């Protein structure tokens, strides 16, 4: 499963804050290493020079070893005089180099010259206090820098993202047919301005294409309705004139129903090419049972010829549906026609539910390979030589998707197919 990407602002905050924190930690670590290096190289070097100078003076004049020194406490004893040393040095391990006296830290170095031993004690408490103070200050500065990095990351990310947010809000709230305003000449020509120009140009092309499509749809609607109305009127007149002649009357009825179906299909296809909200004035309260019965009547000649009985049942009380009549007729009619097309006998059950319709046929069913693409264009199941182009269910699926209806199916090869629509 693909992990969803974090919002751009969060990524900017993380990047800027991470950079600030990384630089702060790197600077703090570098300061600590530099301080330790200075202690090891400079401090130890100067201390070693002082001790070597003192030992050189002793070799020239032993009496100088007893002279007090500003930086050291010096104790000088011969091997047989160790008892004269202070107690804290009598048991001191020469391998060690640290000694704590009265809460103060001393660095101890032991040197031998012939039969004499020198103990040099350097008071490091002031240096340790300075080191601790430096650590506290560095830690405080690091914490402050981390906090500043977090604040700056939020502030800068808002400023960086704001032009994109404004552009996004502008695109999201555009009215139908409106376009994004192109950058003004005085505005900076940055990446956001380039993006705005690209969106404005692309949207202008889309608006032009949609306008041409609307004009084409209106022209097609007008040009198709006029001849269809003429054919339908002629069919109704012919139906009245043939009187009681069954064969001629049946043919006239089929022509009239075909014209009505073509009219409904033309209107439904025009609705499909436009936004549903633009047809709110065409929405009516529809009796689903009457629509089902009317669509069953349109295939009566086929069902009679194939010996199929279409049973219309109710499972509860149907709830009136607020929708465009032509769209509902096409959706229900295509499902029923599809069931009749692929059934050679027996019964087709059409069950009207409170909020939907279920159509069950007992034809050859749909093979597994076709089930995966049943609602795709030109996909056909069962009898491949049956009439039809395979776009009926694809058209139904598009209407359901556009109007928020749910459609599902269950098919067992050799036993039939069940298609259900929930309005």
Structure description:
This protein has 423 residues and is of the alpha+beta class. It has three domains: 8-146, no CATH class; 176-274, Orthogonal Bundle (Helix Hairpins), CATH 1.10.287; 283-422, Heat Shock Protein 90. Helices cover 55% and strands 16% of the residues. It has helices at residues 8-60, 87-90, 125-172, 191-241, 246-272, 288-298, 300-306, 325-341, 368-371, 392-403, and strands at residues 73-78, 98-101, 104-113, 116-123, 284-286, 309-314, 321-323, 347-353, 356-361, 406-412, 416-422. The strands form three sheets. It has a five-stranded mixed β-sheet with strand order 6-8-9-11-10, covered by helices on one side. The longest helix has 53 residues, at 8-60. The two termini are 32 Å apart.
Helices, strands, pairings?
Elements: H1 8-60, E1 73-78, H2 87-90, E2 98-101, E3 104-113, E4 116-123, H3 125-172, H4 191-241, H5 246-272, E5 284-286, H6 288-298, H7 300-306, E6 309-314, E7 321-323, H8 325-341, E8 347-353, E9 356-361, H9 368-371, H10 392-403, E10 406-412, E11 416-422
Parallel strand pairs: 6-8
Antiparallel strand pairs: 1-4, 2-3, 3-4, 5-7, 8-9, 9-11, 10-11
Question: Care to give the gist of this entry?
Answer:
This protein is of the alpha+beta class and 423 residues long.
Give the N-to-C terminal Cα separation. 32 Å
Lateral strand order in the biggest sheet: 6-8-9-11-10
The Cα radius of gyration reads 47 Å
CATH class of the largest domain: Alpha Beta
Number of strands: 11
Mean pLDDT rating: 76
Segments where pLDDT lies below 50 for 5+ residues?
A: none
Q: Which structural class is indicated by helix and strand composition?
A: alpha+beta
List the domain count as a whole number: 3
CATH topology of the largest domain: Heat Shock Protein 90
Helix content: 55-70%
Largest sheet: 5 strands, mixed
What fraction strand? 15-25%
